[in-house]
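Figure 3 (text version): structure tokens given as input.
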């Protein structure tokens, strides 16, 4: 028995040195190496490349003096300002209609989710077919009533309106379900107390429902703005026509310029 053990003190166990290849940290790095490589190639490198070009002030002068880029900035403001607010306002109203516990409402709720559930490309192709200036259903109805056909996707106002309508139609069910979940989280006792005080439907919405959904509405607005700014699907597919540059946004303008440069269209 050693002197340290006689005095009641146990010797500290010696540390076992692991091989570097058996370390959990190294194993984690090896497993995440493919993801880190993709992240560096598609996130870090473009950011560094953009910062490198950002040092050139002539690039900014050229971009902001370009009338096409100026039009895309205006389109972005209109697109985000109108599409986001109209979409969320309609979602807030429709969530109140779908809050009833009737069987018909449940069936309508399931059907209402179809635009959001289907892939975006079939919906875009359907819109392009309906808005076609030669055989589209809208121009067919106009000619039935003796009205001239309209080149919906070949002029700025109608093409831009079609993009916003498709965006609202596509993503309205998602935000409606979000607000519906928020409505059902409100205690019924608040509505019962408001009914005792003689509050009607409008008073319930103004003084009970909306104050409790205000924070959720603000968060959904911010998230919808972020999603809408990066919405390449609708702008990149539906706008492709004679009014492409007129209704383009920065997210699609870069794609168009790259496509025209490398594909030579």
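Below: residues designed for each position.
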């Amino acid at each position: 028995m050693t002197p340290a053990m006689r005095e009641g003190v146990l010797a500290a166990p010696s540390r076992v040195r692991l091989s570097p290849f058996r370390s959990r940290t190294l194993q984690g790095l090896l497993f995440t190496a493919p993801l880190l490589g993709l992240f560096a190639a598609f996130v870090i490198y473009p950011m560094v490349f953009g910062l490198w070009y950002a040092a050139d002030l002539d690039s900014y002068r050229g971009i902001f003096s370009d009338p096409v880029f100026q039009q895309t900035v205006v389109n972005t403001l209109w697109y985000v300002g109108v599409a986001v607010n109209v979409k969320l306002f309609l979602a807030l109203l429709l969530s109140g209609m779908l809050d009833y516990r009737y069987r018909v409402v449940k069936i309508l709720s399931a059907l209402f989710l179809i635009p959001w559930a289907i892939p975006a490309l079939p919906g875009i192709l359907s819109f392009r077919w309906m808005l076609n200036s030669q055989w589209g259903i809208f121009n067919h109805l106009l000619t039935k009533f003796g009205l001239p056909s309209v080149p919906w996707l070949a002029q700025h106002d109608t093409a831009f309106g079609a993009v916003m309508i498709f965006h609202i139609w596509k993503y309205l069910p998602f935000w409606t379900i979000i607000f519906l979940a928020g409505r059902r989280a409100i205690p019924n006792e608040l509505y019962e107390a408001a009914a005792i005080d003689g509050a009607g439907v409008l008073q319930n919405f103004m003084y009970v429902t909306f104050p409790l959904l205000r924070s959720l509405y603000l968060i959904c607005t911010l998230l919808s703005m972020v999603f809408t700014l990066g919405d390449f699907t609708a702008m990149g597919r539906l706008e492709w026509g004679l009014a492409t540059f007129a209704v383009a946004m920065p997210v699609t303008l870069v794609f168009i310029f790259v496509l025209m440069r490398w594909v030579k269209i």
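The chain has one domain: 68-262.
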